[in-house]
């Protein structure tokens, strides 16, 4: 599809990947409808988008509220008359051992990350069905392929988003809706405020586990998918290598990831007080929002890329050797 002149709805546009994607879409000439809970941050992103000569609309929305997502689609239709692209991206994380994750938080993560995407897909596909064309992008995670410890609800939600994509593509194929696409994006660790925003009952500060890619790397992948839709796209060399290795040897890769997450995603030095983070409401201390999370994405990616590419292979080889011996 042609991005210039199209109308794109982006959820989670107040920070991180959603914000970077909205700005990139505007730079390429798309009108954008921006959704998240932080109204002030959305207005700022909308103003930045307008500087590229496109129209933009900020619609404060809680994606876990089906009525609010319906209103979001209505506002987009009223203002622009159509919806060519719908990017389901708004999501929250949770860091805690399974038994220490409050059930209310568990449900909230699934409500935002799964039902929020379901509500978005319903609005988008209804409109795209009437138009006869359109693309839905669902931002999942490589965690949807290789689930991690201490993030059970988040890992479940990202696996569910991938399954949703497969189901929807099957239905579209049966309906011969050749010009309607549903694509799933699987990013690895990205330099955004995601880790500061999540609920945390682990007692340890949540960190972005290297290698860390920039939010713009995901935005570029999303724009490539709009030009040439594919069912699934993994972002970055490390992500692609991890997914490929997991399909080949799931057990050693899962064992390796568990150790990596325990060492690299939850700090052993910095404690963290138990907190629901911003899963129930926007982060008050971060009203303006930002694209990056202060994890120095580009530098850390370059520095760690080679190491991270070698480590899984070494770990897998060691695990296979161990298994053979036993
Ligand atoms: N960062 C990573 O390492 C990483 C890796 C793989 C996948 N991802 C995925 O990438 C996507 C974007 O995350 P990010 O890294 O950009 O994190 P982020 O900076 O925390 O962005 C999350 C966005 O979702 C919005 N949001 C959260 N709850 C919401 C709700 N109930 N209703 C509406 N909006 C809500 C937040 O804005 P408000 O607070 O203003 O609502 C924010 O704009 C998510 O799907 C995440 O799972 C991230």
Which tags fit this structure?
two-stranded parallel ribbon, Rossmann fold, 50% helix, 16% strand, binds NADP nicotinamide-adenine-dinucleotide phosphate, 13 strands, alpha/beta, 326 residues, seven-stranded parallel β-sheet, single chain
In short:
Helix content is 50%, strand content 16%. It is α/β, with parallel strands linked by helices and 326 residues long. The protein has a single domain, classed as NAD(P)-binding Rossmann-like Domain (Rossmann fold, 3-Layer(aba) Sandwich), CATH 3.40.50.720.
Explain how this protein is built:
The chain is α/β, with parallel strands linked by helices and 326 residues long. The chain has one domain: 3-Layer(aba) Sandwich (Rossmann fold). The protein contains ten helices and 13 strands. The chain has helices spanning 16-27, 39-50, 66-80, 103-131, 152-174, 194-197, 215-227, 237-248, 250-264, 297-325, and strands at residues 7-11, 31-36, 56-60, 85-88, 94-95, 134-139, 180-186, 190-191, 199-200, 204-206, 213-214, 232-234, 266-271. Helix 3 packs parallel to helix 4 (103-131) and helix 4 (103-131) runs parallel beside helix 5. The relative contact order is 0.14. The chain binds NADP nicotinamide-adenine-dinucleotide phosphate.
